Amino acid sequence: MKNSLATKEVALIATMAALAAVGRVPFAFIPGVQPTTFIVMMTGWVFGARIGFLTGAIAALSSNFFLGQGPWTPWQMAAWGLGGAVAGLLSKKQEAELPLVRFTLLTFLWGFLFGWIMNIWHWIGFIYPLNMKTFMATYAVSLPFDSLHACGNAIFSLTFGTTFHRILRRFRKRITVKTLAEKLF
Question: Rounded to two decimals, what is the model's pTM?
Answer without folding.
Answer: 0.89
